[in-house]
Amino acid sequence: MNKPDAISWHERARSLSFRTQAFVNGRYVDAASGGTFDSLNPATGKLLARVASGDEEDINRAVAAARAVFRKGSWANLAPAKRKRALFRFADLILKHTEELALLETLDMGKPIGDSLKVDVPGAARCIQWYAEAIDKVYDEVAPTGAAALATITREPLGVVGAIVPWNYPLLMAAWKIAPVLAAGNSMVLKPSEKSPLTALKVAELAVEAGIPEGVLNVVPGFGQTAGKALALHMDVDCIAFTGSTATGRSIMQYAGQSNLKRVSLECGGKSPNIVLADYPDLDKAASAAAYAIFINQGEVCSAGSRLLLQEGIKDAMLEKVQTISKKLQPGDPLDPGTKLGAIVDEIQMKRVLGYIDSGRRDGANLRFGGRRVREDSGGFFIEPTVFEDVRPAMTIAREEIFGPVLSVITFKTPEEAVEIANDVVYGLASAVWTRDVTTAHRMARAIRAGTVYINCYDADDITVPFGGFKQSGIGRDKSLHALEKYTELKTTWLDLS
Q: Domain of 92?
């Protein structure tokens, strides 16, 4: 059977049906207000769907459903082996619907269909499978209290978790929340980004089909200032887990304090340094990694290597190689399987990115290549790969998260100077060091204030390792067994045996 080509994907897109209502207590429902918002196709600028616009009343209904099923215990008290089987069925259904979900993701968010098929959907299923497998592998503890007492330390689910996820990896970021939240026995209310809600609405239905009780996973689409704020302020939500901008994360912390001191987990912005030392012998490998680190997913990646720090003497050679690679990464039709870069998620974000490009020019950085909107005749929102050189660390483009395909190149003399530049931003999400000297690599990794330090690679990934940031890049970790810590409480039970 031949793999679908662009024509086939466009034909499928024309016949695809969308779930556009909120999903509360196991069924699709209109927003309480009856309101909707327009979801546009980033590749064409045209209307894709009208989606239910949830607000405080919808959040109230979803939280009530989640609380009711939690108290009933049909999921929270289900035997671990049975929860495990239900999550495995959930993951299998996601894989069964791979092409449908990939198409929804690409139409809704603008990323290349190849990435949706090979990265986003299987990555979401893998995440759910992994946490399903972990359910009956995480043991409780017995404290070493001595013979006169027995003290057990057990993990219990928090209760109702609210999750707010971003638009750049809608399904995958949702899975990073859903999987550990449900594995721990909680119920949840998920608010997807208003820019990309369609896959979340579909997988909620698949969860019920997999045997997860109604009310355990609820999805309320809507805007941050209405549905998101209501979720973060809700007095019956025990935890709010957020991925998105640092500015919004700061607001969520305030809402948690204003309400019930709910637990807060934040994965926020980044301005990640990708440091290449002159002793690294394979500049072709480093240049390829540098290009993909910033241009993949249109640069809409929180951990993107948006600052390329090059030791004096290798800049010209590296940038020539980066430019050559970038010619193969030009924006194209997201439904063409050969496309490597898709569309920026919407016009607002496109204008924001172009504004940063203008800022780089004004501040005196040298535009090495790129910097333009392209494919305007499509009606979509496309920006070509863009590289600025001669960037000073104090420039806006070197300090603020752009969230687009824009690379700032900074030179340095010594490894110590590179670390100083790397740490001189408010973020600390990811970073990389390229060197042949293992001692230098370890010393720099220890000194860099970031949640992840890649050595001689970039964006290497596995569900088994935690992901999150230092400083204003967030609080807590997604992925790995450490994510379960956010969604469980420790209880000590002391039995006097004297």
A: 6-268+474-492
Q: Are residues 206 and 287 in the same domain?
A: no
Residue of 172, 51, 157, 159 lying closest to 101 (CA atoms): 172
- Is-catalytic flag, 302? yes
pLDDT per position as a tens digit, 64-114: 999 999 999 999 999 999 999 999 999 999 999 999 999 999 999 999 999
Give me the residues paired with residue 498 across strands: none
Q: Which helix (H) or strand (E) holds 326?
A: helix 315-326
Asked if residue 469 belongs to a domain, the reply is no
Alpha-helical segments (H) within 51-110 = 56-72, 80-96, 98-109
418 and 85 Cβ atoms separated by less than 8 Å:
no
262 and 292 share one domain: no
Determine the Cα–Cα distance for residues 277 and 413; give it in Å rounded to an integer.
Answer: 9
Tokens of 372: 């333009």
Among residues 180, 190, 177, 198, the alpha carbon closest in space to that of 228 is found at 190
* Catalytic residue (choose from 105, 194, 267, 384): 267
Closest CA to 199 of 123, 278, 295: 123
Indicate if 239 belongs to the active site.
Answer: no
Catalytic: which of 302, 384, 389, 401? Answer: 302
Which of these, 463, 456, 497, lies nearest to 479 by C-alpha position? 463
* Alpha-carbon span 102 to 39, nearest angstrom: 17
3-state secondary structure 195-224: CCCHHHHHHHHHHHHCCCCCCCEEECCECH
Q: What is the pLDDT of residues 236-264, one digit of tens each?
A: 999 999 999 999 999 999 999 999 999 99
For residue 172, give both structure tokens: 């995958």
With beta carbons less than 8 A apart as the criterion, state whether 303 and 268 touch: no
Does any domain span residue 1?
Answer: no
Whether the per-residue pLDDT at 1 is higher than 60: the answer is: no
According to DSSP, the residues that pair with 142 across neighbouring strands are 152
| pTM of the predicted protein model | 0.97
